[in-house]
Amino acid sequence: MPSPAIIAELRETLRTIEGDGYRRRETLPFGIPTFDSRIADGGLRLDALHEIAAGTANLGDDAAATLFIAGIAARAWGPVLWVVRRRDLFAPGLYQAGLSPERVLYAEARDDAELLALMEEGLRHRGLGAVIGEVKRATMGATRRLQLAAEGGRTIALLMRRHPREDADPLGTPSAALTRWRITSAPSAPSRHGMGRARWTVALERQRGGDPFQTLMEACDDTGRLALPAALGDRSRAPGRASPRTAAA
């Protein structure tokens, strides 16, 4: 029977080789059980790279994807580094998604290569809650470096894949990202006071250790939280109706 010291040493060696550890990685859940239960880690792993793309190249979908990212960053701890190629972020809009301006550090990169290098540097710093970048092109090697830089820390890496061309799929190239999301604007429900809360079609296109899925969600509120549309939430609790897992599909 091996001694406890040898077992502990072996486990440490395996953690180093596999990079996956025996301790549960910290995650950032969305706070919606029927949604989080469909994500392999029960939420977004903090020490990992996650990719997000707009459903189409139009401005509405681009804004939805940006606010989806802002909502995630808003719920992370600490300061946020946002690396951009162009100065088109609207601070009041980010604030409405829960990301206050005093938390955000902006860096402007000349090209995608410099942007990815700045993201990698930010992830290795270990003092940031989130590192965000927006690129048109990133190779498998570049995303693997971001994933390796994030591992072992508590800084979530969020890479927005912009449409390189209107007819191109920004998520069509291989990536080392743990999850890949596609966010598309959806019609909001009317209310007594006009249009209701904005809605998005949120599609998890790929996740390591889990299946893809798609669901209709209400957009981030001022705390960065998504919500199930009221009709889906009511249906999931009504007797004789579909289960919460099915209602969110």
Question: Features of this protein?
Answer:
disordered C terminus; ImuA; 12 strands; Rossmann fold; 8 helices; two-stranded antiparallel sheet; Protein ImuA; alpha/beta; P-loop_NTPase; 32% helix; eight-stranded mixed sheet; 249 residues
What does this structure look like?
It comes from Sphingomonas jeddahensis. This is Protein ImuA. The protein is α/β, with parallel strands linked by helices. The protein has a single domain, classed as Rossmann fold. Strand 4, helix 4 and strand 5 form a beta-alpha-beta unit.
Summarize the structure.
This protein has a single domain (24-247), classed as Rossmann fold. Helix content is 32%, strand content 24%. The chain is built from 8 helices and 12 strands.
Per-chain topology:
Layout: H1 4-18, E1 27-28, H2 33-36, E2 44-45, E3 49-54, H3 59-75, E4 80-84, H4 91-96, E5 104-108, H5 112-125, E6 130-135, H6 140-150, E7 156-161, E8 179-186, E9 190-191, E10 194-195, E11 199-207, E12 213-218, H7 230-237, H8 244-247
Parallel strand pairs: 3-7, 3-8, 4-5, 4-6, 6-7
Antiparallel strand pairs: 1-2, 8-11, 9-10, 11-12
Helix pairs in contact: 5-6
Helix content: 25-40%
Order of strands, main sheet, comes to 5-4-6-7-3-8-11-12
What sequence of helices (H) and strands (E) makes up the elements?
A: HEHEEHEHEHEHEEEEEEHH
CATH level-four homologous superfamily name: P-loop containing nucleotide triphosphate hydrolases
The domain count comes to: 1
Per CATH, which architecture?
A: 3-Layer(aba) Sandwich
How far the N terminus sits from the C terminus, by CA atoms, comes to 49 Å
Query: How many strand segments?
Result: 12
Radius of gyration: 19 Å
User: Which shape, going by the Cα principal axes?
Assistant: globular
Given helix and strand content, the structural type is: alpha/beta
User: What CATH first level would be assigned?
Assistant: Alpha Beta
> What percentage of the residues does DSSP assign to strands (E)?
15-25%
**What is the mean predicted local confidence, pLDDT?**
85
Which residues form runs of ≥5 with pLDDT under 50?
Answer: 17-24, 233-249
CATH topology: Rossmann fold
Largest sheet: 8 strands, mixed
H/I helix tally: 8
Region (Disordered): 230-249
Protein name: Protein ImuA
InterPro entries: ImuA, P-loop_NTPase
